[in-house]
Design a protein that fits this description.
There is one protein chain. It contains nine helices and nine strands. It is α/β, with parallel strands linked by helices. It has two domains: 165 residues, 3-Layer(aba) Sandwich (Rossmann fold); 104 residues, K homology (KH) domain (GMP Synthetase, Chain A, domain 3, 2-Layer Sandwich). The strands form two sheets. The protein has a six-stranded mixed sheet with strand order 2-3-1-4-5-6, sandwiched between helices. The two termini are 33 Å apart.
Length: 291
């Protein structure tokens, strides 16, 4: 049997979370068109009885020059993923600047087999795809190359076969019935945060985080209370919206996703709290789950 850690790396806009969800077949990582949506290392397990257990890790996008302590915490998650990887997936949009991405991949100094995955191949024009293969296959860190399209499901199965080929022999690390090692509260908070990324402009989502304070399973429903944390009073007003319109919208959309995830009825209560400069406060970052 084969078992190992397959960690996904790339720039903030590489589509790592989308690929993780496609490989696992479940929505574990939140997805947004905005960059730097992923802030934590998220593990998802894929099991094929008697054949393999793959522990996939979606990592935060690589930030070359962190601006806040929050960014530093995110890059620590990337570093931790580098240390325990058995196989690395290096994601790059086929239409990106390959030299820029090559510089980033080279600085990772990987000691394990790396598969370069060119994404969005359905948007590649002319000989772009063959050029990408030639460019990355020549790099010392590239053990193999493949082009995929998650939206069209192109070559996802082929990528999985390629991953299994490089996995070491070993015993499973986790129970085969488990999907992840993260608590349910984590995913609840992430689903709320995803709706903030979806509903608000470019600034607000990056100034917010979500803290789940209460998660109580009752006979007929699950009661959840969470705080949306912002940095300024003006941001609180935007999240609330006129007459509480926007926070109600966040709550409704998040509750629908949480109910699907838990397969239970949910009562979701959201509050907005102002915590000045929380992104640079070590104690607050730890309180909010950024270890």
């Amino acid at each position: 049997m084969k078992a190992g850690f397959v960690n996904i790396f790339g720039k903030p806009n590489a589509g790592k979370s989308t690929l993780l969800n496609a490989l696992i077949g479940e929505k574990l990582a939140i997805v947004s068109p905005k960059v730097q949506t992923t802030r934590h290392r998220i593990k998802g397990f894929l099991n094929k009885e008697g054949e393999y257990q793959i522990i996939f890790s979606d990592t935060p996008g690589i930030i070359e020059q962190p601006k806040y302590k929050l960014h530093e915490k995110m890059m620590q998650a990337v570093k931790g993923s580098l240390e325990d990887a058995d196989v690395a997936l290096l994601l790059v949009d086929v239409n990106e600047d390959w030299n820029e991405v090559d510089n980033i991949f080279s600085t990772l100094r990987l000691k394990v087999p790396a598969i370069v995955v060119s994404t969005k191949i359905d948007t590649a024009k002319g000989s772009k795809l063959e050029e990408a293969k030639t460019f990355f296959s020549s790099k010392s860190y590239c053990k193999n190359w493949i082009g995929i399209s998650v939206t069209q499901g192109a070559n996802i199965g082929e990528l999985l076969d390629m991953i299994v080929e490089y996995l070491p022999e070993g015993s499973p690390f986790y129970n085969e019935d488990d999907l992840t090692d993260l608590p349910t509260k984590f995913f609840v908070g992430e689903m709320v945060r995803e709706k903030i990324f979806f509903l608000f402009g470019d600034e607000i989502p990056y100034h917010t985080t979500v803290l789940v304070n209460e998660f109580k399973e009752k006979e007929t429903l699950v009661k959840i209370q969470a705080d949306i944390v912002v940095q300024r009073e003006s941001q609180k007003a935007i999240i609330l919206g006129e007459g509480g319109k926007m926070i109600k919208k966040v709550g409704t959309m998040a509750r629908e996703d949480i109910e699907k995830f838990l397969d239970q009825k949910v009562f979701l209560q959201l509050f907005v709290k102002v915590k000045s400069k929380w992104r640079d406060d070590e104690l607050k970052l730890r309180e909010y789950g950024y270890k």
